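We emphasize that the prediction below concerns an isolated chain of 151 residues; any contacts that depend on oligomerization or on bound cofactors are therefore not represented. The input was used exactly as deposited, without trimming of termini.
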Amino acid sequence: MDQLVPVLMIVGIVVFIMVRQIGKVTSRLDSKADTNNAFERYSKFSSIIQEHVREIKNALDSTKTKEEESPFKLQEGRNENQALEKLSDFIRKLVFFETMMAKQKSAKEIETELFEVLTGIETFLKEFCVDGETLSEALRERLLNAYEELN
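Result of the prediction step, given as a token string:
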């Protein structure tokens, strides 16, 4: 119980930093681009996130043959099918941002939903993967770099 408080504080700080960074990036995006251009950026970013989620899913799927060693390993005692289903849910949500339906939403609504998906992926890594904290930090950095390259 004594270790839970510092962990929760660290998670809170990480979430706070993530919210601020995403807020900075998205406010810059809003000031530079019109709505259609913003939608295209969100669509491309969604596609990039999907690639990373598929990479995680393939690494955790024991029925797939692995060509190379992956850092994503399921924690002992975790249900593989449940993990794969959660990853499939993330992919389904991300596919939405590439469809015409997402154009009916405002940029802020899309940002909010993308943030929820990103937070869910981060939580998934921490709950289901060995060394999930490190993996989520590395993924966050890769996605931030990919998003900045879209600008």
